[in-house]
Amino acid sequence: MNAITRNELVHLDAPVVEFTLNGQPVTARASETLIEVADREGVAIPRLCYKPGMDTAGNCRACMVEINGERTLAPSCCRFPTAGMQVTTDSERALHAQRMVLELLQSDMPETSYTLHNEVDVWAEELAVGKPRFAPRARVAPDLSHPAMTVNLDACIQCTRCVRACRDEQMNDVIGLALRGEAEKIVFDMDDPMGNSTCVACGECVQACPTGALMPAREAALTIPDKQVDSVCPYCGVGCQLTYNVKDNKILYVEGRDGPANHGRLCVKGRYGFDYAHHPHRLTVPLIRREGVPKNGDFAMDPDRVMDVFREATWEEALALTGGKLRGIRDSAGPRALAGFGSAKGSNEEAYLFQKLVRTGFGSNNVDHCTRLCHASSVVALLEGIGSGAVSNPVMDVTKAEVIVIIGANPTVNHPVAATWIKNAVANGSKLIVMDPRRSDLSRLAHRSLQFRADTDVAMLNAMMHVIVNENLVDEGFIASRTIGYEELKANVAEYSPEKMAPICGIDAETLRYVARLYATSKGSMILWGMGVS
Asked: The domain at 137-278 falls in which architecture?
């Protein structure tokens, strides 16, 4: 189940109001915007700067509606309903304002390949705006400095969706608005070329852009795909859902999908790291070693000369050869002479089939997996500590935590999308504690950063437990009903006072006590750990 964010909690607590929308009575939460209510009721209101899931900006003015009794029109993306309010989205006055905004923006939209499917034209056609009467602005040269993205500022309408995607969602704060008036424009860092900026290439701005001002490089998104394939990102374990846009069995570009772990967000690997699928060195048919070519431990394979060593084979020939060889070993040396080692790149279904092959085909229990090899110690610790060798919460729960502790992990590098939820939680008031001998990227957002000496994390953590136990910052009812071995733990940490551990771990006793109390007394604390402690 997805975590409920603080913003969603506001909706749950808001009172219900009744008002009329285009003459029809509707009910809504007082915290919902008029455009959200209209979407739910099936009433189409043009919008450009508004995008569900983003903070509202209200700067495009395409979503203006008329409210009875008010002198001016109101932007429906920023206005909330009140009891008895009478809202009209399609009055002559509202439609005139909507069409004028779209016509002005459309007049500046260059008629080029990268603006063929822009949202300005879509809404202009919906409202029958017609050909713009106004002269276009001067063209701006494209920024082609980034290997993954192209910047076409002549198609930019300053809707700031890219700014909010970068600043509020991904929390990278690379994109901003510079200058004022007619000279106002989108910039990267200090008006650097995008390729020279601190952009991490997550592509969130590209996915947010409504016009083609930001798009995949080399016009990858201009080709119309012949199919879309929903999938899961093959890289880290966050589990981001995505959609591959495919033409002639070749991936054109990737879009984030609204999954429980990512809600449309992706990182550079998930969005742009798919070229390996079409790499010329990728094996697409089975290969069998040529007769007379010996195996040599010092041999270095030249990817361009693979066929000097191997030859192409049919699947039937390759499976018969490998199956026969494995069967021969089993029959001559016994089942225990064979073993299987699985990969984390496989799905759960593939892992099941693989272990079944080893156990039923080989007749051996010698089956292992790289994840178990990495996390054997942590699984044992989890089983002993919480009774389950798996995580207790989805990472999205950081949005509900008051205190977040990260130890032995660098999420911005290894799990970038998960890191965005941590950054969002901090922006919403959560206190982040980073424990790492190195100073990671998240340290700049941390409430406290504990750079302990390498290999002294046990001393540091025992000192924190000493404080929690000695100051009785524990839930005694929970301990009595849900745990065993607490008295042994209490005795074990008795000698690990912060004053004794401070010289060992390099963190002063006062900080150790403060962090321990903060963690123990918050209404909801969450620990995220990684390979650094497993």
From this structure: Single Sheet (2.20)
- Determine the residue type at 193: P
Q: pTM of the prediction?
A: 0.86
Pseudo-torsion of CA 49, 53, 56, 61, nearest 10°?
A: 30
Contacts of 400 (CB under 8 A, 6+ apart): 3, 4, 5, 6, 524
Domains 6-106 and 137-278 share a fold: no
Structure tokens at 516: 């321990």
For the domain with range 6-106, which CATH number is right: 3.30.450.20, 3.40.50.2000, 1.20.120.450, 3.10.20.740? 3.10.20.740
Neighbouring C-alpha atoms within 13 Å toward the C-beta of 440: 24
Q: Which two tokens stand for residue 534?
A: 């497993």
Cα–Cα distance measured from residue 464 to residue 438, given in angstroms and rounded to the nearest whole number: 20
DSSP, res 272: H
CA distance from start to end of the chain: 26
Question: For every one of its 534 residues, what pLDDT tens digit does the chain have, with 9 covering 90 and above?
Answer: 344 444 555 566 789 999 999 999 999 999 999 999 999 999 999 999 999 989 999 999 999 999 999 999 999 999 999 999 999 999 999 999 999 999 999 999 998 888 888 999 999 999 999 999 999 888 889 999 999 999 999 999 999 999 999 999 999 999 999 999 889 999 999 999 999 999 999 999 999 999 999 999 988 888 899 999 999 998 988 999 999 999 999 999 999 999 999 999 999 999 999 988 889 888 999 999 999 888 887 778 888 889 999 999 999 999 999 999 999 999 999 999 999 999 887 888 999 999 999 999 999 999 998 877 777 888 888 888 888 877 888 898 999 999 999 999 999 999 999 999 999 999 999 999 999 999 999 999 999 999 999 999 999 999 999 999 999 999 999 999 999 999 999 999 999 999 999 999 999 999 999 999 999 999 999 999 988 886
Domain range 395-529, CATH class = alpha beta
- CA torsion sign, 29 to 32 to 35 to 41? negative
Indicate the burial class of 492 (C-beta count within 10 angstroms; 0-12, 13-18, 19 or more).
middle
Domain boundaries along the sequence of the chain: 6-106, 137-278, 283-291+305-333, 334-375, 395-529
User: DSSP string spanning 151-194?
Assistant: E-GGG-----HHHHIIIIIS----EEEES-GGG-EEEETTTB-G
Which residues have C-beta within 8 Å of that of residue 61, sequence separation ≥ 6?
75, 97, 101
Render 457-525 in DSSP notation, one character per residue.
HHHHHHHHHHHHHHTT-S-HHHHHHH-S-HHHHHHHTTT--HHHHHHHHS--HHHHHHHHHHHHHSSSE
H-assigned helices in 409-451: 411-414, 416-427
- Residue 378: partners with Cβ closer than 8 Å, 6 or more residues away: 529, 533, 534
